């Protein structure tokens, strides 16, 4: 089956749009020469001394607008609007709300989830011994030149990939995947392949998840394959999840546990969300070909335990190198664009830099991508309008 034929030109445009929106989320924070970890350490920022935001009508209203907007995009770019299963859409959104309520608001379930998050953090701390053996004091920020991403975060990806392969070889991961797949299959009336793939993507990467549904691949419909791919993009793989916990939590175990709880919750909630978007973009039309049996592939990664760990290590190494290389290149590209916008070509001679500093009270130091995209997509755009008004007024006075 030719996979590129699955997506129409409209869906390709949608993918580019969603990629752009997700990128802007990284640009909301003001530019700074310090890393996130350095700022947390310098300003003594900790999850323990940050109060939880109150749930207000405004926040709920904003969330409903976001859901409606994304559903509108899915409907506008749908390959067959008449075939959209609105029951599936409603149940998918309801599952997200149920998961969020259980994991964050129900005390008993939230306590269990918090315990799991704390154990994940403890597990990652024990796993650092391998990195310390190889890199020595470079792994410890207090004994080296500070928090070094390459030595602190990337080894976590390698280890977690190897450990995930071990769990898959032992059959433990398949049992966990089956539970989530059963829930989504019964509630959303999905095929067995879609349910298993969506559940597997919660815990493993999108390159390993298809192994779970290998018996189905040859007979999967276009809608099922798109659901498989979208699910891989929507959730967080185990190795990357561990990297996020290390990077965002820094050296604070309380912060790590809190980030772990929220990231795991977000990954689980993203599974039904991905199904909703995939089924809106490419609704199922070949209902006669759907196989609703939940049959996990018995194929194992590796011929024995050591082989499984070795294969997972190799895959994790490739992923870690790719993550490091992508961060290196795209961070440099953003810096080049900021140099062009805020340097001697635009920001300095036009006076925009000074206006932006005044309008934002020093939050932004110059005209940059962070300033443009942050003000365009942030809820409060007063800084942007204020700077524009001041700029136009000053230009009028000069003239």
From TrEMBL:
<dbReference type="InterPro" id="IPR011657">
    <property type="entry name" value="CNT_C_dom"/>
</dbReference>
<dbReference type="InterPro" id="IPR011642">
    <property type="entry name" value="Gate_dom"/>
</dbReference>
<feature type="transmembrane region" description="Helical">
    <location>
        <begin position="86"/>
        <end position="106"/>
    </location>
</feature>
<dbReference type="GO" id="GO:0005337">
    <property type="term" value="F:nucleoside transmembrane transporter activity"/>
</dbReference>
<feature type="transmembrane region" description="Helical">
    <location>
        <begin position="59"/>
        <end position="79"/>
    </location>
</feature>
<protein>
    <submittedName>
        <fullName>Nucleoside permease NupC</fullName>
    </submittedName>
</protein>
<comment type="similarity">
    <text>Belongs to the concentrative nucleoside transporter (CNT) (TC 2.A.41) family.</text>
</comment>
<dbReference type="InterPro" id="IPR002668">
    <property type="entry name" value="CNT_N_dom"/>
</dbReference>
<feature type="domain" description="Nucleoside transporter/FeoB GTPase Gate">
    <location>
        <begin position="150"/>
        <end position="249"/>
    </location>
</feature>
<dbReference type="InterPro" id="IPR008276">
    <property type="entry name" value="C_nuclsd_transpt"/>
</dbReference>
<feature type="signal peptide">
    <location>
        <begin position="1"/>
        <end position="27"/>
    </location>
</feature>
<keyword id="KW-0732">Signal</keyword>
<feature type="transmembrane region" description="Helical">
    <location>
        <begin position="319"/>
        <end position="341"/>
    </location>
</feature>
<feature type="domain" description="Concentrative nucleoside transporter C-terminal">
    <location>
        <begin position="262"/>
        <end position="379"/>
    </location>
</feature>
<feature type="domain" description="Concentrative nucleoside transporter N-terminal">
    <location>
        <begin position="65"/>
        <end position="138"/>
    </location>
</feature>
<keyword id="KW-0812">Transmembrane</keyword>
<keyword id="KW-1003">Cell membrane</keyword>
<feature type="transmembrane region" description="Helical">
    <location>
        <begin position="147"/>
        <end position="170"/>
    </location>
</feature>
<dbReference type="Pfam" id="PF07662">
    <property type="entry name" value="Nucleos_tra2_C"/>
</dbReference>
<dbReference type="Pfam" id="PF07670">
    <property type="entry name" value="Gate"/>
</dbReference>
<feature type="transmembrane region" description="Helical">
    <location>
        <begin position="225"/>
        <end position="247"/>
    </location>
</feature>
<dbReference type="GO" id="GO:0015293">
    <property type="term" value="F:symporter activity"/>
</dbReference>
<dbReference type="Pfam" id="PF01773">
    <property type="entry name" value="Nucleos_tra2_N"/>
</dbReference>
<feature type="transmembrane region" description="Helical">
    <location>
        <begin position="259"/>
        <end position="282"/>
    </location>
</feature>
<dbReference type="GO" id="GO:0005886">
    <property type="term" value="C:plasma membrane"/>
</dbReference>
<keyword id="KW-1133">Transmembrane helix</keyword>
<keyword id="KW-0472">Membrane</keyword>
């Amino acid at each position: 089956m030719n996979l590129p034929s699955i997506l129409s030109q409209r869906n390709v445009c949608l993918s580019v749009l969603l990629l752009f929106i997700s990128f802007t989320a990284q640009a909301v924070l003001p530019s700074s020469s310090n890393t996130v970890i350095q700022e947390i350490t310098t300003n003594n920022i900790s999850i323990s001394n940050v109060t939880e935001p109150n749930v207000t009508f405004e926040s709920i209203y904003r969330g409903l607008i976001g859901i409606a907007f994304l559903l509108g995009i899915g409907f506008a770019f749908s390959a067959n609007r008449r075939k959209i299963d609105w029951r599936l859409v409603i149940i998918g959104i309801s599952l997200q709300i149920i998961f969020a309520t259980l994991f964050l608001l129900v005390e008993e379930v939230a306590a269990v989830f918090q315990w799991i998050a704390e154990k994940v953090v403890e597990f990652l701390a024990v796993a650092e011994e391998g990195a310390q053996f190889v890199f020595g004091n470079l792994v410890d920020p207090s004994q080296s030149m500070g928090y070094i991403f390459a030595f602190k975060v990337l080894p976590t990806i390698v280890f977690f990939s190897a450990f995930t392969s071990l769990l898959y070889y032992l059959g433990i991961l398949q049992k966990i995947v089956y539970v989530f797949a059963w829930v989504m299959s019964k509630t959303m009336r999905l095929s067995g392949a879609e349910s298993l793939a969506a559940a597997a993507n919660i815990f493993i990467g999108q390159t390993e998840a298809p192994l779970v549904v290998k018996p189905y691949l040859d007979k999967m419909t276009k809608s099922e394959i798109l659901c498989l791919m979208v699910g891989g993009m929507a959730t967080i793989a185990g190795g990357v999840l561990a990297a996020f916990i290390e990077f965002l939590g820094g050296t604070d175990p309380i912060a790590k546990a809190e980030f772990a709880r929220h990231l795991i919750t977000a990954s689980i909630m993203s599974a039904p969300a991905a199904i909703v978007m995939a089924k809106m973009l490419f609704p199922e039309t070949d209902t006669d070909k759907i196989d609703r049996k939940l049959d996990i592939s018995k194929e194992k990664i590796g011929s024995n335990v050591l082989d499984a760990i070795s294969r997972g290590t190799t895959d994790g190494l490739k992923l870690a190198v790719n993550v490091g290389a992508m961060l290196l290149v795209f961070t440099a590209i953003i810096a080049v664009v900021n140099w062009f916008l805020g340097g001697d070509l635009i920001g300095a001679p036009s006076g925009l830099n000074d206006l932006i500093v005044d309008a934002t009270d020093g939050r932004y130091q110059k005209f940059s991508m962070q300033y443009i995209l942050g003000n365009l997509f942030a809820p409060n755009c007063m800084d942007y309008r204020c700077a524009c008004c001041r700029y136009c007024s000053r230009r009028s006075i000069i003239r």
